[in-house]
Structures are given as C-alpha cells and as structure tokens.
Amino acid sequence: MIGRAMLLTNNPAYSFLPLPAGILHTIQGSALDVCLGARDRIHLGAALHHHPLYGNFQPRHQPYRSLLLSIAEGPSLVDDFSLQLLEEALRFFAKDRPLLPEDIPVRMRRDCALLDFELMRRPLIQAGLLEDGVVAPEYDGESVSL
Predict the structure, then answer these.
(1) What digits encode the pLDDT tens for the residues 86-133?
(2) Phi, psi of 26 (to 5 degrees)
(3) What is the residue-wise DSSP string for 32-91?
(4) Which of 25, 67, 81, 137 has the fewest Cβ atoms surrounding its Cβ within 10 A?
(5) By three-state DSSP, how is residue 139 classified?
(6) Angle (CA) 73 24 87, round 5°
(7) If you ran DSSP here, which 8-state letter would residue 138 be given?
(8) What angle do CA 25, 137, 66 make, to 5 degrees?
(9) Which H helix or E strand runs over 5?
(10) pTM listed for this prediction
(11) Cβ distance 35 to 65 under 8 Å?
C-alpha cells in the first residue's frame, strides 16, 4: 500500500472495479486533462507512483490515461522528480491535439479502455489497491457493466 492514494483517470471502465473508497477520481475530458490534473496535485504535494508515459504509445494514439498518485499527509514540498516527469509528458501531449474518446469509433474505445487498464494493473496491484486476478469490466465503448 502506498499510503493515501489517488487514481486520476478519464477511463470509465475503472468506475466498476473493486477499488478502495475515495481512490478513484474521474476526470471528464482527454488524457491531457488527466495529466494537467495530476500536475496540479503534484504542486500540492502529491507524487507520481509510476511514469506518466506508460506503454509504447504516443499520447495522440490513446484517448484514455490513468495516473496513480501518492498523496502526502499534511504539508509537503513539491516532488521535483514527479513534476519533471509530468512536464516531460506534457511536452509530448503539446505536439498534437488531444485525442478524446468520442473522436474514435465505439469499438476502438473499448480496446483503448482495456489497454489503459492492463497497463495500470501492475501499479495498482503493487500499491495494494487491486487484488491480483481482478479482470477488467466489460466496457462496450459507451457503458460499463460487470
């Protein structure tokens, strides 16, 4: 367990996972919006639990992004390393217009949501936030069901 944690995401598939209460923070918008939200929280003392550019995908190819943050208890300094990683990721995002989920066909949304979940599975398990063996909920690109 990483102490107090926050999972920032624009992936609707996470809303039906058995995550601890208060962990999930859904952001409406693009993967860029998720990164900007994480940057704001890092300025308030949070730290990234993993690299913000996971997988072998350019930001313009993946409409969903999920970031796991450790939240400091009480006043804390800005984690310079997390901020540096996130600023580097934001430079990649600045190269192209952000890809929104509604920009791609429904069938591809499902695949992108699953990919985002699979890339985050290990960090969530290592942080003690998800049991090993939990599978992604069925997401048809429009709604989520178990």
Answers:
(1) 999 999 888 888 888 889 898 888 889 999 999 999 999 999 998 888
(2) -90, 135
(3) HHHHHHHHHHHHTT-EESS-SS-TT--GGG-S--EEEEEEPSSS----HHHHHHHHHHHH
(4) 81
(5) strand
(6) 70
(7) E
(8) 35
(9) strand 4-9
(10) 0.88
(11) yes
